[in-house]
Design goal:
Helix content: 40-55%
Order of helices and strands: HHHHHEEHEEEH
Largest sheet: 5 strands, antiparallel
Distance between the termini: 56 Å
Radius of gyration: 23 Å
Strand content: 5-15%
Number of strands: 5
Shape: flat
Length: 212
């Protein structure tokens, strides 16, 4: 029985991640294929070809994203985006949502330039720790009025790290980790299932580092 249980667990460790991955990929393919419904019925590929091609929506989405990137990287495209953003900023509710989402998105896709370090902060209450990203030094006005040297941190929500909470935390209450930005994001996206390996290289190397 022990041997059978070991074989069963070994098999599950192979098939469960593979099955979940396939289900997620299939879901994403179907989701992207729904973008084809935005086209007029007379020019939809399924109508023209007489049969459905799975994954065609992904190709269409990638093509649109790449074409958009090509357009907005030149002067004319930047002007169009600027005009569009000015229009959005005139709409009360939309401007707040758009500005917040854009800021976070830029941070997420800036190869870690906006996120300086992975840190630990006590949140949401004393004795409970969570991963956060240091985003910058605290404002001088905040330091003067609180009498404490603070640092800016972003605490993402899981499993969607594009939203979260901005906190100004006293530097002495922040613990810097040796974890990379990518590893921190992986841990958050997996809600703690994926834990990056930590190699202990010596006592002196494990001392807390000074924040910027």
């Amino acid at each position: 029985m022990v041997t059978l249980r070991r074989y069963l667990m070994a098999g599950l460790l192979v098939w469960v991640p593979l099955g979940v991955t396939l289900l997620i990929v299939a879901f994403l393919v179907d989701l992207m294929d729904q973008t084809l419904l935005l086209l007029p019925a007379s020019i939809q590929p399924e109508y023209l070809l007489g049969f459905r091609i799975p994954g065609l929506g992904i190709a269409l989405t990638l093509a649109i994203v790449l074409l958009t990137g090509m357009i907005v990287t030149n002067l004319f495209g930047k002007q169009l985006v600027s005009i569009g953003e000015r229009v959005l900023h005139r709409i009360p509710l939309v401007r707040s949502i758009y500005a917040a989402v854009k800021q976070v998105t830029e941070s997420m896709f800036s190869s870690g330039k906006s996120f300086r370090k992975v840190v630990l902060v006590e949140y949401p209450h004393k004795g409970s720790w969570t991963l956060a990203f240091q985003t910058g030094a605290g404002a001088e006005e905040v330091r003067l009025k609180t009498g404490r040297d603070v640092t800016n941190v972003f605490v993402p929500t899981t499993p969607n790290p594009t939203s979260g909470f901005f906190l100004m935390v006293p530097r002495e209450d922040v613990i810097e980790l040796d974890m990379s930005i990518d590893d921190g994001l992986k841990m958050l996206l997996s809600v703690g299932v994926v834990v990056p390996a930590y190699k202990k290289v010596g006592v002196t190397d494990q001392r807390p580092h000074k924040l910027l």
